[in-house]
Amino acid sequence: METESPATPSRQYRTRRRTLNSRACDRCRRRKAKCDTLSPQVPCSSCRLADAPCTFELPLARRGPKARHRAGTSLTATEEESTIIAIDDETTAQAEEDADDRLNSTTLLMQEPGQGGFGNGASISASPAASWAGSLVEQPPLTALQRWQRLSLALSLANADPDQIVSRCVDLFFKYLYPLTPLVHEPGLRSDLDNFASGSSLTEIGAWRADSAFTLITAVCAEAAFLLPSDVFPESNEAVGHIFLRASRDCLHSYLEADLESPDANSIAIRYFHSNCIHATGKPKYSWHIFGEATRLAQVMQLHKESSLEGLAPLEAEFRRRAFWIVYMGDKSAAILNNRPITLHRFSFDDDLTTAFPMGLDHESSNLSAVSPDTPSSLPMQSSSLITGFNANLQLWQAASELLLELRLLQDTQRDSMVTGLLARSAPSVEQRQRLDALYVHFTTCLDELPAYLQSCTLATASGQSLMHTTQLVIQCANLQVSFHCLRMVITQRFEDMSYHGTSLEQADLRRTEIARDMLRVMQEAPFWSLQVNGEPYVEKIRLIGASLLAIVHRNPGSPLATRARADFMVLLDTLTRLDSKASDALRSNMM
After folding, report:
1. Name one GO molecular function term (predicted).
2. Which of 160, 236, 333, 573 could bridge across to 165 with cysteines, CB 3.0–4.6 Å?
3. Burial status of residue 484 (CB atoms within 10 A of its CB: 0-12, 13-18, 19 or more)
4. d(CA 227, CA 175)
């Protein structure tokens, strides 16, 4: 029988894993958690966070079948124990060798979640035999650098150059997606990316910090791969997006407990990116679940209070503000566009919502001054700052949500009055009308003070800024204006449902067609790529307008209103088809 060379990978692995520093500590073994200790003298991150001793005192369980001996043969206690130990060692060694052979025959892309494996498809699982074999070997936790090496291998197998595709993802993210989701500090991310590419400086920042950096980088790359259209990012494909997403999800799983116990701004940003990517794959329920994790972290961190940011580094405080407000805005968007329950509103908190709007970084200047969300006139208007458009979007959704929440409270009051015996729906009181009118005026005028380049995509294109900055301004402008008209449609329909304005149904439908035409003008003025990079939320806004037009067509057969609504609907449907949206087929079938 040929003897295996000590230099072979499987023999090196077995020798390494039998040493003490490859064992899980006692606390992690009891809790069946991953342990990242490197030696008995260095506590694992879980024990450090819990301020608990990191010990290795629990005895190792014996492995393998019990010893058997021939009938009639008597062994002394010492001989029996020696025989059992010998059989245990032989069985364990054979099991490990068989497991190594099976694992070596299984591609690295088919590992169980949490072990660093990630597939080049939507979901690739190991075979039952490989999973059973893998369970026999307690694998040591992967380092961030090992995960990076596996990521490079997976990208290579997907016919993508690892360094080139990662660099391209990061560049395109900051050019096209950062204006809408400024949740990442670009200099810091690029510095971490350089460390991974060179394989240096990772041991100096600690295992948890390195894992977090890897998770964020791959989440950003997944966001770019999933959300950017092929016209903008021809080198990417769905397989590449799944590789990045699986790598990011697996790495997050490896330090999940520590991340939940000590979250930071990146903890929310990573989950927000994961939610966006999964939503783009057509899994809205799963996406909503992951978005809920980001929402709960924001609540646990009490990010609705500006005082929760005291004592933090300026950069961390700024990105926590951004993380809170983008989750706040996403919560309202999901409620309005996808009929989800509102989670974050003024009644959700024991205290008032005092967190300031983000302040902007001149890449990013450390001279930061907070902007109050309660003072519209204090919204920064520096023409060179992208945070102006971001804050305007926050202000728009905040104004709309306050109005819609007030309308909901009024509807509940009217419903309660009907239940208590009043057959007719009671009209709003003078005080209620004044409150609603003030909120409606605030919503309608909340974008009036914006710079011209955020009120017109044509003016944004001619803003005189650099090409990259002009691109970002056009994206923000298209998103702002389409969101505004979409919210106008929603609010108008809510008012009509309450018979608030007292107009006829035809007049109400006419008002809806005018809103739809305002939105069509924005869409036709904006470059098509700016519609594409706004992603699935943009499609959902178009779909909402399309559904309103369809209702007008069905309510007014033979009327000029139906003719107008049908013509505008066909334009929307053509845009949805060009956007390659799953919503276009459903709308087309409803029209036929």
Report:
1. DNA binding
2. 160
3. buried
4. 13
Which of 137, 130, 140, 135 minimizes the C-alpha distance to 110?
Answer: 130
The gap from C-alpha 552 to its chain's centroid, in whole angstroms, comes to 36
Q: E-assigned strands of 24-108?
A: none
For residue 357, report the phi and psi dihedrals to the nearest 5 degrees. -65, 155
Q: What is the pLDDT of residues 197-237, one digit of tens each?
A: 887 666 666 788 889 999 999 999 999 999 998 888 988 88
What type of residue is 143? T
DSSP notation for 511-563: HHHHHHHHHHHHHHHS-HHHHHTTHHHHHHHHHHHHHHHHHHHHHSTTSHHHH
Show the tokens assigned to 577: 């088809």
As beta bridge partners, residue 357 has: 371
H-run or E-run covering 297: helix 284-300
The whole-angstrom separation of Cα 233 and Cα 529 is: 11
Question: Alpha carbon of 288 to those of 124, 217, 292, 529, 583: distances in Å?
Answer: 22, 22, 6, 26, 18
- Measured distance CA(508)–CA(547) in Å, rounded: 15
Confidence of residue 293 (pLDDT cuts 50, 70, 90): very high
Alpha carbons within 13 angstroms on the beta-carbon side of residue 291 total: 26
146-179: per-residue pLDDT in tens?
999 999 999 999 888 999 999 999 999 999 999 9
Which tokens sit at 297?
């972290």
Strands (E), 239-310: none
Half-sphere exposure of 265 (CA within 13 A, CB side): 22
Give the integer Cα–Cα distance in Å for 460 and 572. Answer: 23
Tokens of 540: 């959902």
pTM: 0.71
Strand partners, 39: 42
Length of the chain: 592
- 537 to each of 448, 483, 581, how far by Cα in Å? 24, 9, 11
